[in-house]
């Protein structure tokens, strides 16, 4: 079935998120109490709510998106290109810019969104942050009333499960077992919060996010048993 999909109709994406405030103390009293309740199960008795706050970016109610990287295939003459770009900066603006991309270029029924673990994380997180920022959902993220087969989302992790819904496989592991050599990553997901708030180096985070988009596209190609992208085919725009 994957082979029937036109690669040029798929938008690959990845997001990076951080806690909405740098420090727990910056939250108002109500939000601190809500965070304490929300995080209680995960932190158990090992951490206080304040100590656990560096992980708040995982939840859309307590975090924010700092960049959305996207990539798409395009035939350039005889050569298949993969073009990558990133929306970053103010969250409301980057979400609106991303929405404009969807509405302008990926709004038709044939178009699909693809991310690794996107169904559990990226897609719902973007939708929730749009609602929080007062942005109406684009059709590709508004799932209300859609039947499962009408949802325009692909997920490389979900495709790898083959029905084994308890199975989790990281993008890094999938790339390794499928023989995809990825460039040495400067950071990993656990470092994003510190790089953003302490180093204030968004460029490092964007590079990391774009690498994940390229890797997701490579994994998708391997799932179709097709040749991987060469460096010359990948272009930042």
UniProtKB/TrEMBL annotation:
Q: Does the keyword Manganese apply?
A: no
Looking up SUPFAM superfamilies in the UniProt record yields: Ribonuclease H-like
Mind listing the UniProt keywords for this protein, alphabetically?
Answer: Exonuclease, Hydrolase, Nuclease
- This protein is called 3'-5' exonuclease
InterPro entries (alphabetical)? 3'-5'_exonuclease_PolB-like, RNaseH-like_sf, RNaseH_sf
By its UniProt entry, which Pfam families does this protein fall under? DNA_pol_B_exo2 (PF10108)
Q: Domain Predicted 3'-5' exonuclease PolB-like spans what residues?
A: 62-224
């Amino acid at each position: 079935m994957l082979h029937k999909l036109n690669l040029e109709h798929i938008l690959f994406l990845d997001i990076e998120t951080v806690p909405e405030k740098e420090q727990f103390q910056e939250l108002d009293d109500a939000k601190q109490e809500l965070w304490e309740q929300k995080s209680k199960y995960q932190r158990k008795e090992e951490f206080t709510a304040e100590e656990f706050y560096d992980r708040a970016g995982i939840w859309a109610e307590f975090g924010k998106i700092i960049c959305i990287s996207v990539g798409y295939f395009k035939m350039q003459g005889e050569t298949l290109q993969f073009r990558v770009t990133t929306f970053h900066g103010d969250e409301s603006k980057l979400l609106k810019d991303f929405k404009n991309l969807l509405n302008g270029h990926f709004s038709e029924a044939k178009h699909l969104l693809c991310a690794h673990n996107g169904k559990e994380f990226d897609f719902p997180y973007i939708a929730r942050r749009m609602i929080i920022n007062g942005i109406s959902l684009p059709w590709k993220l508004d799932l209300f009333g859609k039947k499962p087969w009408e949802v325009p989302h692909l997920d490389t992790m979900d495709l790898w499960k083959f029905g084994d819904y308890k199975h989790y496989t990281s993008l890094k592991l999938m790339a390794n077992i499928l023989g995809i050599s990825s460039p040495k990553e400067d950071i990993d997901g656990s470092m994003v919060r510190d790089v953003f708030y302490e180093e204030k180096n968004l460029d490092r985070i964007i590079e990391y996010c774009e690498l994940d988009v390229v890797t997701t596209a490579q994994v998708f190609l391997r799932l179709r048993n097709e040749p991987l992208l060469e460096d010359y085919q990948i272009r930042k725009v």
